[in-house]
Amino acid sequence: MDMQYGTSKQHEVRQAQLQLQRLRRLEVRGTNKNPNCSIETTSRRKPARRLRRRIGLLILLFGTTVLYFAYFQAYKTVQSTIQRQHKIANLARTQMRAVTDTRNTDQEIRTFLQADLVEHPNMADFLSPKLTSAEEVINEAQRIHSMVFQNLIGKYKRAVIICIFNAPNKGDNAILVAELALLQQLGVTVVGTFEYTFSKNANAKQRMNLLSIPRGRDLVVLVGGGGYLGAFPKICRNNLKIFINYFQESELIFFPNSVSFLGPPEAILASSALLAGYKKRCTITLRDRWSYKWFVKHFPANRILLVPDIAFAIGSVKTIQVPTYDILWVKRNDWEAQKDKKYKRIPPFPPNVTFIIEDWDNNWIFRKLPGKRFVEQMQFRAWVGFGILGKARVIISDRLHAHIMSVLAGKPNVVMNSSTRKGEHYYNTWTAGITNTRFAETNEQAVEQALQLLETNLQKSNNY
C-alpha cells in the first residue's frame, strides 16, 4: 500500500516537473507571457501573431514603395525644371552673342535678357529691331515663350483649351500645333478641348465632355490664340461664360491674340466686357504693341502681357521642296480682305518671272483629311500650309500667318495689311528688322519689293 502511494506520488511530481519545463520553454520562445495560461491557449495565439507580423511587413513595404515613387516624381520634376531653365539660359546666351552691336548697348541688352517679362511686359519687344535674321527672331520669340508661359502655365498639371478655330485657314491650324508643342514642353497634359463647329449637336457634345472634367487648382483654362479679342462670335461668348462659371477655381489665360479694329471701340469693349470681371485670375497675352496698349488702357484690372505669336513655338521649319514659281501671292478672299478696289488690281509682272496668285483656304483640304480626331486634321492642315509656301522662292501675302510661317521656313516675304491691319502692327512689333522681310501698303509696292527679294535670292543661289 505504501509502495503504491509512493509510486503514484512520484508520478505526479514527475508530471508537474514536465509541465513546468514545457512552460519555461514557451516563455523562452516569447509565445507565452502569462505563466498561468495553458499550452492550448498559447498555441491558438501563434497564427494571430504571425498574421499581425506579416501585415506589419506589408505595410512597411507599401510605405517604402510610396516614398520611393514620391521621391522619383519629385526628382523628375526638379530635373525637368532645371532643363527648362537651362534652355532659357542657352537662348539668352545665344541672343547675347547675336546682338553685340556696340559697347554702349551691351549693358542694356544684358539688363533686358535678365528681365522678368511677366513683371515688365512693356519691354518685351526691346530686342526686336536689332534682330536681322529669321533665326534670331525665332530664337527670341521662343525665349519669351519659355520665360512667360513657364511662369504662367508651368505650375499646373492639367489644361483645357477652349475657343479653338477648327477651320481650313492654315494659320489657325499652325497655332494649335504650336500650343500643343509648348504644353508638351512644359509638362502640362491637355485633358479637354472645345473648338468651333457649324453643328449645334457637335458643340453641345463638346460642351458636355468639357463640363464633365474634374475641377481643381491643378487645372488651367487656356483660350486659343490667333483670334480677335472684341470680335468673339456669339457662340464663343456664350460658351466662354459657361466655362468661366464652371471652372471658377482655375486661372484663365489667353494665348497671344489681337484686337479687332473693325467697328467702334465701344463695340469692342462691350464684346470683351466679360473679361473684366475675371480680373487677376485672367491673364491676356497680346501679340502686337497696338493691341497691348489698347488693352492696358481699357482693362487695367487684368494682367496684360506682350508676347510674340504662339506659332513661333513650332521653331524653324526646313522643307525639301524645289520651288516651281518665283513668286507666290497668298491673297485673302474672306471677310478680312481689303474692300478697296485698288487692292483688287494686280500690277504686271516681268515676262521672265513666274508667279501664282491664290488663297490657301482650300476647300478640298477642309473636306478630305486623314485622321479621325480634329487635332490630327489640324496638324495635317498646318503642314499643308508650309507645303503651299514651299512652291515659290518669294511670298507676298495679306495673311499674317503666311508671313509668320514664311519666317519659320526662312522664306523671303512681303507682308501686307488685311482690313484689320494686324499685319502691319505685328511687323512693326517683332519682324521689321529681318533683312529678307518687307512691308507694303499697296499692291504696286508689294510687287516691286518682291522682285527685289527675288533678285537677291537668285544671286545667293548662284553663289552656291
Provide the descriptors you would attach to this structure in a database record.
464 residues, alpha/beta, seven-stranded parallel β-sheet, five-stranded parallel β-sheet, 14 helices, 12 strands, 52% helix, elongated, disordered N terminus
Task: Please outline what is shown here.
This protein is 52% helix and 13% strand. The protein has 464 residues and is α/β, with parallel strands linked by helices. Helix 2 packs antiparallel against helix 4, helix 5 crosses helix 11 and helix 5 crosses helix 12.
Q: Overview of this structure, please?
A:
This protein is an alpha/beta fold and 464 residues long. The chain has 14 helices and twelve strands. α8 links the parallel β5 and β6. The N terminus is likely disordered. It is elongated, with a radius of gyration of 35 Å. The strands form two sheets. Strands 1, 2, 3, 4, 5, 6 and 7 form a seven-stranded parallel β-sheet that branches.
Question: Roughly how many Å apart are the termini?
Answer: 133 Å
Given the structure, what is the number of helices?
Answer: 14
Quaternary structure of the protein: single chain
**Biggest sheet, open or closed, and with what strands and sense?**
7 strands, parallel
State the secondary-structure class: alpha/beta
Helix-strand sequence:
HHHHEHEHEEHEHEHEEEHHEHEHEH
Evaluate the radius of gyration: 35 Å
Residue stretches low in confidence (pLDDT < 50, at least 5 long) are: 1-5, 37-42, 363-367
Mean model confidence by pLDDT: 82
Fraction of residues in β-strands: 5-15%
Which word captures the global form?
Answer: elongated
For the secondary structure, the number of strands is 12
Determine the fraction of residues in helical runs and give it as a percent range: 40-55%
